[in-house]
Every structure is written in structure tokens, then in C-alpha cells.
Design a protein that fits this description.
The chain is an alpha/beta fold and 274 residues long. Helix content is 31%, strand content 24%. The chain has 7 helices and 12 strands. The strands form 2 sheets. Strands 3-2-1-4-7-8-9 form a 7-stranded mixed beta sheet, sandwiched between helices. The chain has a 5-stranded antiparallel beta sheet with strand order 6-5-10-12-11. Helix 2 runs parallel beside helix 5 and helix 6 crosses helix 7. The radius of gyration is 18 Å and the shape is globular. The model has no long low-confidence stretch (mean pLDDT 98).
């Protein structure tokens, strides 16, 4: 049995603001160590439960945060940038289940460091379903028939996951006080909770259904300002909805929609504010 684990950073215990998740700032080294420990808690549990292969994908920022030397020796780590499928790089039909560690709620919602890929995105939609990183990544997993069986993060990420995926298991390692404050478990307590919930989820993985994406989905991204929409609209096949900052793209499948989202958000980040 093969397990895929995508690890973001904003939902890790004790991490509450950009100083913990930006490699240029003073709290980052502490943050990446705790991130590695939470990832390893999930990995070691899977191996202890008899799973054959565990692939971890570093899914935050430049995606080179996890300390490989501190992982279980049998782990396979996907690390570095650029990745064609970003937070779900390497995920395919060979996996029996997926787990998301360190995840946060989508943009425009309450929660610690909420956003959707970049801070210029207000909302993202697949057809009429409002999604963030969690939902989009779960759709890609569902394309391959892989269920997302557990999410670890703050309480708001758990609420989002439970609304999208019936029966999903969650490890709530902190409760949002504001976007940059939380009531958090200590790392030791958070890792213990993750191990417990991973164990339960692995026992239950056959009862959780994949989040199956729609055929030929329409991707819609609402940006914070028109300049970002203009940059995103440079990608062929996109249109700006009149009178809005929303850019649309008609995709042939969820994989194409995902890569379109990556290109559009990368372009939008070129916008300046002077």
C-alpha cells in the first residue's frame, strides 16, 4: 500500500505569522524544524501500520523546507522548485490514499495565515464550487481515484476539509484566534495527535471516497485588483469577466485547470502597487 503526503507550512503547530514561514525571517528555522517533525509523525505512523511506500511532497513556498535528514530513512521526499504540479507533484493512481499536513483554510475565510496560493487571490472556483489549496489538491487526487483521508492544520482548515470530503479525519493542532494568532498545542502534543489521527485514517481509508472533479471544469479566479487580473489574462485561453477582477479558463480536465491556476497566479504576482 502506498501513501502520498503533501506538507504545507501555515497549518503547523505554533506557527502563526509570516516570520515562521518566510525563509528570510528570524522564526523560519524553528518553523521548518517543527514542520519536519509533523511530517515525520505521519510518515512513521504509516510505516508502523505496514504501508509499503510513503512519498512526501514539500508543498510550501520554494518547496525546499523539510529537513530530509530528520525523516524516517525509508521516506521518499519530493523537494525543490519548479514542479509542474506544485503541491501535488508526484501524485498519481499508484497511491491508495493521501494525507495533507500543515494545511490552512482558503482565502477570504477566518483562520491562521489563510490564503489561496498567493495573497492576491480572493476566491477560486471550480465550476460553482469555491475552493482553496486544500480543495484543489483534493480534486487532483480524486482525478486519480485517490481519497484524501486526513488533514492536519488549524480548526478552520478542518472545517473546510469536512465540508468537502465526507468522513475525512482531522488533526486540529491549533485554533485560530485571528489571522496571525492561535491557541496552539505544543509540537510534542501536536505530533502525538497527528500519529493518532493518521492511524485511525489509515484503518478507515477504504471508507473515504475520492473528491471526484467535474469533467471539463471551468476555473475562475477572483483577484484582489485589476492589475493582477490583467497579468493573469496574458495566459492564452483566459478571459476577464466584464466589470470584475475574475479571470476564467475553460479546461479539458482538472489537471489542466490546476496548471492554468499555477500559471495565472505566477503571472499575477508580477503586479506592482506603485
Amino acid at each position: 500500500m502506498n501513501l502520498y503526503i503533501s506538507v504545507d507550512m501555515e497549518g503547523i503547530s505554533g506557527l502563526v505569522d509570516h516570520t515562521h514561514v518566510d525563509s528570510r525571517l528570524h522564526n523560519y528555522e524553528r518553523g521548518r524544524k517543527i514542520m519536519t517533525q509533523e511530517a515525520n509523525a505521519a510518515v512513521t505512523t504509516a510505516f508502523e501500520k505496514g504501508w509499503n511506500e510513503v512519498v512526501v511532497n514539500d508543498s510550501h513556498s520554494k518547496m525546499n523546507n523539510i529537513l530530509i535528514e530528520e525523516l524516517h530513512p525509508d521516506t521518499k521526499l519530493i523537494t525543490g522548485d519548479v514542479k509542474p504540479f506544485s503541491m501535488v507533484q508526484g501524485l498519481d493512481e499508484s497511491f491508495d490514499a493521501a494525507i495533507f499536513i500543515g494545511y490552512h483554510a482558503r482565502a477570504s475565510l477566518k483562520g491562521v495565515m489563510t490564503h489561496s496560493m498567493i495573497f492576491g487571490v480572493r476566491n477560486m472556483y471550480i465550476n460553482d464550487v469555491q475552493i482553496g489549496e486544500l480543495g484543489f489538491n483534493a480534486y487532483v487526487a480524486g482525478y486519480y481515484g485517490v481519497p484524501v483521508i486526513m488533514v492536519a492544520g488549524d480548526d478552520q482548515a478542518a472545517l473546510e476539509a469536512e465540508a468537502l470530503i465526507p468522513g475525512i479525519h482531522c488533526a486540529v493542532v491549533k485554533e485560530a484566534v485571528s489571522r496571525s494568532a492561535a491557541k496552539s498545542f505544543t509540537p510534542e502534543k501536536a505530533q502525538s495527535l497527528i500519529k493518532k489521527q493518521v492511524s485511525i485514517a489509515l484503518n478507515d481509508y477504504q471508507n473515504i471516497k475520492p473528491l471526484v472533479p467535474p469533467d471539463k471544469p471551468t476555473l475562475r479566479i477572483e483577484f484582489a485588483n485589476y492589475g493582477q487580473a490583467e497579468w493573469a489574462n496574458l495566459m492564452p485561453g483566459t478571459q476577464i469577466e466584464p466589470g470584475t477582477t475574475t479571470v476564467t479558463f475553460q479546461a479539458k480536465d482538472i489537471k489542466e485547470a490546476y496548471q492554468a491556476m499555477l500559471v495565472m497566479t505566477e503571472l499575477a504576482m508580477r503586479t506592482t502597487f506603485n
